[in-house]
Amino acid sequence: MRMRFWLAAAATSFVLPQAASAEEAVEAAIRGWIAAVDATPEWTASYDGLVYDPASDSARVSGLVIRAEQPGPADQPPATIGLDALVVTGYVENPDGYKVRTITADGGLLQAGFMTVRLADIALDDFSAPYGLSFTYDQAKPFSSLMQVYAELLGIGLRHGRVGTVALDQHHAGVDSSIVYEDVEIADMAAGKVGRFDTGTVRMDSPTPDGLVKMTIAGIESRDTDLGAFVHVYDPTAYVDGVGDMQWHDAIARAAYHGVVMEVPGARVNFGDIVIEDFRLRQPPESFVGFFDDVIARPNMPAALAERLAMRALPAMFSSFSVGRFAILDTSVDAMGIDHLALRDFHMNDFSIDGLGEIGIEGLEGVVQGQGAIEVARFAFGGITFGGYDALNQMIAAGMSTPPQDVSHLAPKLGFIEVGGIELQTPDIARLSLERFRSDFANYAGMIPTKVTAALGGLSIPVSSITDPSTRDALRRLGYDRIVAAFGLDVDYDAASRRVTLKDLHYGIANMGSFTMSGALAGLPVEALQDQALMQQITPDLVLEEARFTFKDDSIVGKGLDLLAGYMNAPAGLFRDQFADAMPFLLSVAVQNDPQLMAIVNQSGLFKQLTPVVRDFVANPGSSITVSLDPPAPVAFKAITEAVENAPKDVVPLLGLTITGAKGTLSPPPEPAVPPIEPGGSTPAVEPAGPGNGTGGEGMTPASPGASTGGADSGGSTPASRTGSE
User: Fold this and answer.
1) Rg (CA), the chain
2) Dist. CA 456–CA 282, nearest whole Å
3) Helix (H, G, I), strand (E, B), or coil: what is residue 702?
């Protein structure tokens, strides 16, 4: 059903004399407008009284009712608009339209479908509108009709407006809910833009199967709203030939809900502010408003049909908007069983159908008595690409097809993940903490990122939380009460050259040691990144170009030797010297159990490189060992395997293998007391060796055989066992 309203002189010019006095203009305009509405076949319009007061230049209308001739659906009344009282003051006509100094009204009613809106205490200052305002209403298309109303309102001007109360009641599917807005204000409206919109308290009540849900909002605000941008997107008639223009328009600079409190059965949730900024709109390739029309006009639509219509509209709907920033600030939860739960910031930045800049939380705190506590300074991920309108259309079509199609190549791609400032306590964990972690992903091949970086620092784990008893006891004997780890990764794959470059891989534990690796491989097809069977098949053909492996001691060697010296009742410094001197023999014995390794070591001359480096590594705290592979020419893994099995003497030159070391510079603290032989004792089995009491010179081992013993420059100083405190 269609009907047309004529809201001003375009409708009244046919019934009004051309020479109306100033006093008669407003009265005649109101009568003419009501008569024009009543003359339509779709509506009836009536009023109880119309009085003009020349002294105040005011026209007062009472009992205004506009009602649709045709009833709504079987369970709904016909659409109705009404005002108990309307006062128009200072009405002035001009060639382009009319202006009104003030409009006041009360007892407003708008009833459409399952919604009823009541308005009270309405006041508009400096209102203006062009002649000929009109709109088309179709009960089968209520949302589209509302958008046409908005389109007509774009020419309205308003310096300031206020509505004391707006009450919205909804009855849908047997459920009643209500929303009440207090002290609604609008200001600086012109050319389809609204400078300011504010409300006072807002109250919402909605029943659920678990009980009544109540919400209160201290206030709502918006700034710099462009109604024209909304009409351009939500009015189907604005699409030229039914096709959207895909051009972005600023719609809302900022909107916010302040002081939100939600009460649900058994809990209360508080939000300081809910904010949206830089909200933009554009016409998608096709309008999706038909879905809203169907849902409103047919509230009892079968769920399966509603779902199909929603899936059909979803790509266009998500393609129509973007959000610069959405945030929920200063959230807290009061609930049984939770002692404290608060979140300072939840945010989502730069969101649209094309991607997501970042979604994250900051300032999370939670405490449950007897269960634990958690703090998270920051957790975020983002840099996500979605693929846009076409990708979402394909994914929905694939999901609804029989059988469903594989569209994994269209899945969103993650750009980064970041975590910082985590503190966790449980009955089993005294305190686990993480200072920072970030990983970045780029250059995707299908679902696999081919460029990855990662950095982790300050992962602190209490030794007491380690569940394996032997590992936990060993670390405690070494003097550690907390493990503080760091990790880093930087790897890049180039599909064109089929080359993997590992720029950095490192892992370290503070006051223990670290491992660092780098290298390059060639011959890796991109298909193998997503096919495990193919990866296993082509592994022998991968080509090694270069590699570096570095092991660095940060006191674990000294701690281990000190502990061993204690159980052997030997002075720690002397024991380390002797152990370092014994390394050549120990290495020669170690390789006896592996014939291939023994052949490589003995036939290639590698033993001569290895023994002095390992000896210095053991003797000098903070030393490192680096194994370098620099093949004269890139070498395939299968060629390496063949050389190991058939020509051990060729392995070292084939790989360009060298072993080098760097002496450490750690200064040893005073030697500790020797621990008891039997754990649990309170008195050492032997008298600790103090400065000057040991023999062999406090762990001063010469760098190579034949060098002089002792001396400040000889190296080999051994740190004593530490307490493990970080």
Assistant:
1) 40
2) 41
3) coil
Residue 723: closest CA among 675, 666, 665, 667: 675
What are 216's strand-pairing partners? 203, 261
Whole-model pTM: value is: 0.79
Cβ count near 362 (within 10 Å): 18
Give CA separation, 135 vs 145, 226, 328, in Å: 8, 20, 38
Angle at 580 between CA 578 and CA 582, to 5 degrees: 70
Helices (DSSP H) in 40-172: which residue ranges? 142-153
**CA dihedral defined by 504, 505, 509, 510, rounded to 10 degrees?**
0
Strand, coil or helix: 562: helix
Distance CA 392, CA 382 (A): 19
Q: What are phi and psi of 612, to 5 degrees?
A: -70, -30
Q: Determine the distance from the C-alpha atom of residue 556 to the mean position of all C-alpha atoms in its chain, rounded to a whole number.
A: 40
Q: Return the half-sphere exposure (C-beta side, CA atoms, 13 A cut-off) of residue 590.
A: 10
Instruction: Please list, residue by residue across 242-274, b when 16 or more beta carbons sit within 10 angstroms of its beta carbon and e when fewer do.
Output: eebeeeeeebbbbbbbbbbebbeeeeebebbbb
Q: How far apart are CA 465 and CA 485, in angstroms?
A: 15
- CA neighbor of 15 nearest in space, from 38, 37, 31: 31
Kindly report the length of the chain: 726
Query: What's the CA gap between 187 and 223, in Å, rounded?
Result: 10
- In 282-354, DSSP assigns E strands to 321-335, 340-352
CA angle 57, 59, 61 (to 5 degrees): 165
Residue 402 has a pLDDT of: 82
Crossing angle for the helix pair 595-604 and 637-646, to the nearest 10 degrees? 90
CA distances from 437 to 345, 377, 452, 453 (A): 19, 12, 13, 11
How deeply is 624 buried, as exposed, middle or buried, from its count of CB atoms within 10 A (0-12, 13-18, 19+)?
buried
Q: Provide the token pair at 215.
A: 């919400």
Confidence at residue 668, expressed as pLDDT on a 0 to 100 scale = 57
Of 112, 111, 48, nearest to 85 by C-alpha is 48
Name the stretches of the chain with pLDDT < 50: 1-23, 669, 674-726
**In 395-463, at which residue ranges do the beta strands (DSSP E only) sit?**
416-426, 429-445, 448-462
Tokens describing residue 27: 């009265």
Give the H/E segment covering residue 355: strand 355-368
